[in-house]
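Table S2 (text version). Query chain:
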Amino acid sequence: MPSLRDTQTAFCAAILSGDAASMLQWVRDDGITAEQRLHIYRNNNRVGSLATLQATYPVIERLGGADWFRQSATQYQVQFPSRSGDLQYLGERYPDFLRVYLADTDYAYFADVAALEWAYQVVLTAAERAPADLDTLRAVAPEDYERLLFVPRPAVRLVESQYPIFAIWQANQPSAVEPDFQIRLDAGPSRVLLIRRTDHVELRELSQGSYHLMRQFQRGATLGSAAISATTEIPEFDLRVCLEEVMALEAIADIELCDARDNEQN
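Corresponding structure-token output:
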């Protein structure tokens, strides 16, 4: 007699693989055959998972079409079955799946659009933190500014792509008016900040400098280190302009003074 855990594992495997042979002896045949009973569970899993992915990736479905999306979702579920009782995380690896699934095709950009949509889901359910109070800066001596840490709010994410994913996302929203222009995939890179507001998630395309600054803040860099990194990569980087843009977006939760020894390691 197999253990409960072994039975449950075999049952899940039968549902995901479609091969129910190993489970038939453990399923009651009471008016409905064992195969039919397992088929009900398999169909419910398929339909429920597809609905979850559709809700998570509406732009990808619109771009690829319903039939293609259903096919890709089916293959995704085979490779990355849910490991959690919370379906919120079902689509977590879909962007990675698409990156391989569509590699070297004209639709490789789908993976970056999917990454943007997943970031939207993460921001939607992330913890809440109020924006930083700028008055805290008044207590910091100017010579210590370079040691400041700007800690991003939890409900903030950054997504960068070589493709114009922000324009693609905007053009494929339910409320979007049909554009009278065609989005060119070679139009240039897109750097998007996502932040949760009171009643919605806001997407904002950032300048290269502001995006780089926020990315450095996410990595725990001090203001001084972040500025040096940005200036090295972006000759026209203007710290004042970019910092003002970041603070105006209320994307920072805390402003802390880093210990001098930690700053040396940073």
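Notes on Table S2: The chain has a mean pLDDT of 88. The first helix runs from residue 4 to 17.
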